Amino acid sequence: MMRGRHPELIKLAASAAGMDATLSRRGFLLLSACAVSSLTALGLCEALGAGAPLVILDNAQGMILADPSRCVGCQRCELACTEFNDGRAQPSLSRIKIDRAASFGPEGPTAGTGVGPAMQGTWGNGLVVQGVCRQCPHPVPCATACPENAIVADPRTGARVVDAKKCVGCRLCQRACPWDMISFDEERQKASKCFLCNGKPKCVEACPSAALHFVPWRDITREGRAGAATLTALSAAKTKACVDCHAPSGKKPARR
Questions:
Q1: Of 12, 77, 193, 196, which one has the fewest beta carbons inside 10 Å?
Q2: What is the torsion angle, in degrees rounded to the nearest 10, for the CA atoms of residue 44, residue 50, residue 53 and residue 56?
Q3: Does 54 map to a domain?
């Protein structure tokens, strides 16, 4: 017998399943398990608030997974990225970051920039930890921070991409990314980020040591640690939108 659950619930479930005539011990236990799962889900919904909105936002279809143990620091991926996206070979604009990790330590050019795990000792073990966009799930930090709503989902890949026509060059997205993966073109005064090259990442194709792989998406935002300071301030309009979306229906967040 389920503790705190009325047996009539089980009988009702059995009747609905066409098992009202006879109910074996096995069937009873099976339905009990189903009932527990269902009631637990209902309890969760109740905890979130009656009528809480169901938010379903598509993630990117894929992502770039880096293997630091295979990276030789040749930076061909950076060149391939900028040649495809910017029409010029300029690693500083690359959406994949190798240059900042190539000096292997806090006493090199990366010192104090907050690149975190890329610092592997001063010319020590030679490990280059490639910086790649993690294709964050909702709420996407860079997109949430953008006051012009210029970072949108690419319909071909689901990856977030910067709409250059809307971008005003405020660089708030750059400050919002926990991994410092937003690039900024000083000449054009436009931000940009990895959008997976329309589903065929050029950095992956160009890597001579197979240190980069294009794989199905999964959430890796909790793996490792963020290396950059982030901007958490949001506009009043976006704050309201987030509250309307995430706060339980009929309940307003407590004022402090």
A1: 12
A2: 30
A3: no
Domain-located, residue 128:
yes
Radius of gyration of the chain (CA): 25
- How do the pLDDT tens digits run along the chain, 256 residues long? 444 445 565 555 555 445 554 555 555 555 455 444 444 444 433 444 444 444 456 899 999 999 988 998 899 999 999 999 999 999 999 999 988 777 654 444 444 444 444 445 455 567 788 899 999 998 899 999 999 999 999 999 999 999 999 999 999 999 999 999 999 999 999 999 999 999 999 999 999 999 999 999 999 888 766 665 555 556 666 666 666 666 555 555 554 4
pTM score, whole prediction: 0.65
Q: Which amino acid is at 210?
A: A
250 belongs to a structural domain: no
CATH number at residue 231: 3.30.70.20
Could you report how far apart the first and last alpha carbons of the chain are, in Å? 45
